[in-house]
Amino acid sequence: MPGVLTTACTVSISGIGVTTTVTVTATPQAPEAHRVFVAAAVERDVVQVLRDEYKISDVGLASCPLGQAVDPGSSFFCTVGVGGRTKSVKIMVKSVDGEYEVGQPE
User: Fold this and answer.
1) Given the DSSP bridges, would you call strands 16-18 and 11-13 parallel, antiparallel or unpaired?
2) Is residue 79 part of a domain?
3) Which of the residues in the chain have pLDDT under 50?
4) Residue 37, class by beta-carbon neighbours within 10 Å (0-12 exposed, 13-18 middle, 19+ buried)?
5) Residue 46, domain member (yes or no)
6) Count: domains in the chain
7) Half-sphere exposure of residue 25, counting CA atoms within 13 Å on the CB side?
């Protein structure tokens, strides 16, 4: 069967050499899906948080890197236009469910 692992071994019982085949069958676990953030969604959220939560009125477009892993404790940076200047905003990943914290622009 594809995706099934089978192995055989020799068993000795009380000094009597008995050869038998023991078949152990296991289906390999699928690797955990590598979850990544959707950059466009994070970009929209960054702009919204800066406007609504941090009360920054002159927020332009945000740009976040593609392929950022949903890995709690990790962080990455997005860039965002604020007052005609480009600023960095730190995104701190909080949970495996994709919750994250948007930092102040620097």
Assistant:
1) antiparallel
2) yes
3) 1-2, 4-13, 16-26, 30
4) buried
5) yes
6) 1
7) 4
DSSP 33-99: P--B--HHHHHHHHHHHHHHTS--S-EEEEE--TT-B--TT-EEEEEEEETTEEEEEEEEE--TT--
Could you list the residue range(s) of the whole structural domain that residue 46 is in? 39-102
25 found inside a domain: no
DSSP-derived secondary structure letter, 2? T
Question: pTM above the 0.85 mark?
Answer: no
pLDDT digits (tens, 9 = 90+) for 70-92: 999 999 999 999 999 999 999 99
Would you say residue 71 lies in a domain?
A: yes
